[in-house]
Amino acid sequence: MLDEIDAVDWASIPGHPDWYEPDRAARGLRALAEAANLVQAAKAGSRLGGGGIVHGHSAAVFPAAVVAAPLLLDIAQQGHPAAKDAALGLLDEALSCYPHAGYTRVVAPDGTAVPICCAIAHHLRARADFLVGLGQKGKSLLADAAAHWRFEIRECVADSSDTAAFGTLVGCLPDGVHAAEMHREGVITVLSELTLEYPPAEGSLEACLRVIARHPGELPPGALLFPAECGDRVH
């Protein structure tokens, strides 16, 4: 785990120059991974929460939090119980805080410029079994992550003046009309109105959305949808 932390060039990760301190991210994660008691875990958590991955006093999150998320989950699984609590608390804080203007997104391997909150939620969902096993604290994190849903379009069919979009949904898209960002080949298009037509059945991710006043040609297969409100989050 320490090798993975040290392998990251934290200084190369963008962040607000007045708030983000790369050295706090690197040293804080290493200290939290090595923490052997409550005091050490608290000191490491304070370093990470004071400019490493978030700035707790101003309630701001940095892009470094996305890189740190799987490392914090590793610490929660393998570290001291106090380090586990600190790691989970930092993940909760990172998910709920807002980023500074100009530093609101991270680029995924496929080139998609994902809102920070959605990228963190993706890492949390990837460890769902572990988090569920923690009881209420882990389930609460997953419930918060569910609000940062993602839908991948597989195929579309015209339905009057609207389009029925079939694909896979992770997270939870609430009832009602919502706006979404559609990401395709580096281009972001805002879809102003869509609703959940058919939710996934238990044990499945297959769902159908109704995209209002859009035709199928505007919604290409493989496009990813994210909550528009996540893209608008600015500190």
What's the layout of helices and strands?
Blueprint (H helix, E strand, L loop, with lengths): L1 H6 L14 H13 L3 H12 L4 E2 L4 E2 L2 H15 L2 H16 L1 E2 L5 E3 L5 E3 H11 L1 H6 L2 H11 L3 E10 L2 E9 L7 E7 L2 E12 L7 E6 L12 E4 H4 L4
Parallel strand pairs: 2-3
Antiparallel strand pairs: 1-2, 4-5, 6-7, 6-11, 7-10, 8-9, 8-11, 9-10
Helix pairs in contact: 2-3, 2-4, 3-5, 4-5, 4-6, 5-6, 5-8, 6-8
Describe the model.
The chain is of the alpha+beta class and 235 residues long. The protein folds into two domains: 145 residues; 82 residues. The chain is built from nine helices and eleven strands. Strands 6-7-10-9-8-11 form a six-stranded antiparallel beta barrel. A three-stranded mixed β-sheet has the order 1-2-3, covered by helices on one side. Strands 4-5 form a two-stranded antiparallel sheet. The chain is elongated.
Unreliable stretches covering 5 or more consecutive residues: none
Strand content: 25-35%
User: How many structural domains in the coordinates?
Assistant: 2
Q: What is the succession of H and E elements? A: HHHEEHHEEEHHHEEEEEEH
**Radius of gyration, in angstroms, nearest whole number:** 19 Å
Shape: elongated
Work out the helix count. Answer: 9
**Helix share, percent:** 40-55%
> Which strand order does the major sheet show?
6-7-10-9-8-11
Computed structural class: alpha+beta
Termini separation comes to 31 Å
Arithmetic mean pLDDT: 95
Write down how many β-strands occur, each being a DSSP E stretch of 2 or more residues.
Answer: 11
Largest sheet: 6 strands, antiparallel, barrel
